[in-house]
Amino acid sequence: MSDTTAAPVIDIANLSYAYGRKDAVHDLSLSVAPGRCYGLFGRNGAGKTTTMRCLLNLLRPRGGRVRMFGLDPAQHEVEVKRRIAFVPDAVAFYPWMTVRETLDYVASFRSRWNRDTERDLLKRFRLDESQKTGALSRGQRTQVALIAAICPEPELLLLDEPTSGLDPIVRREFIETVIGAYQDADPANRTIFVSTHLIAEFEGLIDEFTIMDEGRAVLSLEADRARERYQRIRARFAGPAPELALAGALRVRRHERELDVLASSDTARLLDEIRGSSPESCSTESLSLEEVFVAALQ
Ligand code: ATP
Q1: What parts of the chain have a pLDDT lower than 70?
Q2: What is the value of pTM for the model shown?
């Protein structure tokens, strides 16, 4: 269980960043409580990586501020980095080092390193410790980076598109087993901030999310609230589906005898309106987070 009233692990207030004149992040605010798995969702170019880079003090915000554990990462870089691990979307290691040497090298900078976790993950990913990292595939390099991120048991794991180079089996393994196990070991103190557009893969892990579009937050919600709020109504009629006003619906599709309606508010009123036309059947279901993402960006 996480304590959402505790001081946030990440606190972003009115963050803005531009590359030259090009706005990449604009007036973004969000906060992540300890123990949460927080998703930063957005299409390509939405501003996710730029936001991560501002958190990591790789970019200086043009406006607003970021705090990690209540600290300014620009002023307390070592203190902040000691408590986090980051897996970037493109991973690079010294190519002449083997997997073993790479992990030992990374471990030498860390005050903690869980050798059992390391052994377990090397086995799960079927990595050969004696292989040079320069000879690894992109997905295998990501696997080594994930091991290097999880073994120090950081308080905060920052993941930028962590599964993009991984095959489907390793992806599922990674998300369900590796990430789950990382958080389960100390749920109140292990926080994940993950940027992805592969939302379906994280559906079961995400507690809360922000959807970004063109550098701005379009929607920030708890995952359960999103599933409660975003509903699909399906109705089937004896004859052709009637043309109803259905004001406030996000999307209405009529196909022969079927009516398919997406709603994010006023679902009860829309249901009444549909039922007023005496459908043969009528049901509602929650949207998945991926469907919420698509609906929010329509
Ligand atoms: P993706 O999912 O494709 O990785 P993203 O959401 O991480 O995308 P960013 O990489 O943060 O998006 O990019 C946000 C915007 O900033 C994009 O329009 C991108 O073209 C622009 N941008 C990113 N890096 C640079 C750069 N080094 N110089 C100029 N513009 C950049």
Answers
A1: 1-5
A2: 0.91
